[in-house]
Design goal:
This protein is of the alpha+beta class and 196 residues long. The protein has two domains: 101 residues, no CATH class; 78 residues, DNA Binding (I), subunit A (Orthogonal Bundle), CATH 1.10.30. It contains five helices and nine strands, in the order ββαββαβββαββαα. The longest helix is centred in the N-terminal third of the chain and has 9 residues.
Amino acid sequence: MLNSPTLVLNRSWVAISTTSVRTALALVYKRVARVIQPETYQTHDLDSWSDLRVEPGDPCIRTVRLEIPVPEVILLTRHNHMPRRQVPFSRRNLYRRDGNCCQFCGRRFPTHELSIDHVIPRSRGGRTNWENCVLACIPCNVRKGSRLPAEANIALLRPATAPRWSPCLTVNVGRRRASWEKFVSEQYWNVSLEED
């Protein structure tokens, strides 16, 4: 229970990350954060949160004297910064952007059967960034070689662009709580990698 996730909001009530229940309670204990009751949006310090009645079947942390409800959302009392919104360029994020699909033939492959292709080859001054790198299956990458796609008589299925999803909050679907939907818009959950 102590390792399950808690949503963290900054002072402006914007979701910025998740943390464990253990860390959330420590932040509330240190008066760096307050627990939000999602149904009423009421905020609590540790004393008032501990005084809330735990309904049968609700998740709680039991101590010798108390049953403390598991905090699902906390609000930082001082921190108001927004997290960096640009998705860092990395191999993992490139695979996520392209959905493990070759950007030339459109087929989906296991990770080990894909390579990163530079649309403008590095030998011609191409850079390693979102706008110049795509996933390619081995046959398409060999066919393209160190040429431009037009020279190899193949075309990209879609232009290489920086992803539009927010890196501020990424949570596995199975670890997401229903109460978080009040604080985080649907665009965080339904990441569209298709161009409009």
